[in-house]
Prior knowledge:
- This is 1-phosphofructokinase.
- This protein is α/β, with parallel strands linked by helices.
- It has nine helices and 16 strands.
- A ten-stranded mixed beta sheet has the order 5-4-1-8-9-10-12-13-14-15, sandwiched between helices.
- Strand 4 (53-59), helix 2 (61-73) and strand 5 form a beta-alpha-beta unit.
- The radius of gyration is 18 Å and the shape is globular.
Amino acid sequence: MILTVTPNPSLDRTYEVQALHRGEVVRAETERMDPGGKGVNVSRAVAAAGRRTVAVLPLGGAPGALVAELLDAQGIEVAPVPVAGATRSNIALAEADGVLTKINAPGPQLTADEQELLLDTVRERSRGADWIACCGSLPRGLAPSWYADVVTRAHASGARIALDTSGRALLEALRARPDVVKPNAEELAEAVGRPLVTVGDALKAAEELRGTGAGAVLASLGADGQLLVDDAGAWFGSAAVHAVRSNVGAGDASLAGFLVAGGSGPDALASAVAHGAAAVQLPGSVMPTPADLDPAAVHVTADVPVERLLTEPVLPAEAVS
């Protein structure tokens, strides 16, 4: 069983449009409504892979009730934490050329009692979990050290923990030594406070995160592929993608693929790449099923192409101290 923790879930609406023109009326060709949030997406991908998952998340108001209903319809066991504020609603606009524009709401502010109930629920539902995946931004009211507390408690109970967050929350959590962290290129650049221009730059940054406390680093480099760095070495994985339809949740699908394949080593990296490549070819934040995967299109090597230029070099918005 894989337990996911999403402190700031959402109700996601995705609209596919031919092109987005600022200041004009834009007519959508399709509309989707999905339960959202990074951990929620991981649970959806785990369930799509035929594995049991439990999603712990604070839910409030009509949007929260709809999120729970949508997850239940997908066969996902929900462990809701009732909160007074309404669950946020996010909007994604997917253009025909693959460009995605997202509008993410801030979400409710959790009270001290709600925060404690969230931690208690994670502890209670984590018994027997193979992995605990803590994912996404922290809602208002939670301190940057909140994920670090979850990591410490998880390790005390003998559970392995995967973390997908950014900024101060990531750096605080690294001190608690999570088993796996999964930054994207932007988050990786922000964490080390320097630009990433080549795959080699990303490799050095991942090694730096390991030196700071991460057991392993699974780094998503967008269209260029993914890196895995752990005690046994480093691997680079990539896959051919015919057409990008939406990259919403692709990184979350990758993390799910990594965890359902054991959460370590090149085989798990290959699963992560296959899941991510399949996800970007599906509409909205639809998570891939085994039938959507194309393992033959995946290439994993220990010969990391350190000189390869990234398709989109990354400049950190601001160094995190």
